[in-house]
Request: fold
Amino acid sequence: MAELTVYEGRQALAERSGENYKVICPYDKCAVILERGTDFDVIPGTKQPSLLKSGAEKIVSVYGLLVRFSIESKIEELNAIETEKGFKPFFFYNVRCDLIKIANDGTEYIFTSGYGSANTSEKRNGWNSPFDSCNSTLKMAQKRALVQAALSVSGLSALFSQDIENEVFMKKFDELNEAVKTGTITQKQGKLIFATAADVGLSAKKVKEKLKEWGYGDIKAINQDELDDVLNKINALKEKE
Reply:
């Protein structure tokens, strides 16, 4: 598949139609109606209407583009967060959404791309079963990527904002994504290590000493695939007592 990113595409035309908007594709004048409350809406605490998933899908369809998702990075851990009731899973997904145009000869071109992320620590995802949480989080990341791609291809970001429901999560995105790229543990996972150590009576100072014994100069040096081993070693200290 050949790749073609349109940096200066033609902006869609948006006309008010009562409380709704009529969006017209600049290439062939095909149009769709974006309905308030269904395709876009104003999120409490914001001034600009947010484009919703159904609205993004309508914009993509009026441009005659196909949607393809791919996972750029992820974290999937069933026992990542300790609570009073036991351990909870943590899932994080960074998704890419490609909007694809198929040429007359059948060649596929990536017209533009959008990115979206989500994780199970967001309040809106809640805690059902681990697998329900995983599925809903992945779908949320896909939706965010689709909305970003639709705004990019249509040039309507001045009219609609992206539907980002949890600003706290977005502030933590850089840390999560960097952890995935480097393979090191996240801050939350670091706290899990100290919490586990506290259960066996180890102070923070003692934890650091133990980590140095095990070859880690700093807690940030622990990789994702080494986390379980470190936790097992800490729990083993309790068993020795």
Notes: Residues 2-8, 165-171 have pLDDT under 50 and may be disordered. The helical segments are 53-62, 130-154, 167-182, 187-199, 204-213, 227-240. The chain has two domains: 2-182, 187-240. The chain is about 35% helix and 30% strand.
